[in-house]
Amino acid sequence: MNIENTQSQMRKGVLEFCILSIIKRGEVYPSDIIEEMKRANLNILEGTLYPLLTRLKNADLLTYRWVESTGGPPRKYFSLTDKGAGFYAELQATWNELANAVHALTQNEQAIDTNPNNFNQ
Question: Rounded to two decimals, what is the model's pTM?
Fold first, then answer.
């Protein structure tokens, strides 16, 4: 079993949620996303980020606007659409439920199921 592969898969599973969390705070330039992810020790490459941003935009979860730059080409700044905000809220609820369940299991506690829409379906 390869631990690096497992770790990579775990990171990929939360990547979209983390990126949307950053964008949810306000309009953002892709290099700022990369820097913030790096500071959180979740390194992401441009070759991973840009296709993901495009996919989210094509799903109408993100929008962007061009801003002229004094030192180069115009920059594309991304923000959430209303649909994206709703999608983010659903992801956040799912993450909270999953994180609580994993915490309970890894702490050898009995998970209390208060949500009828749990993962045991």
Answer: 0.81
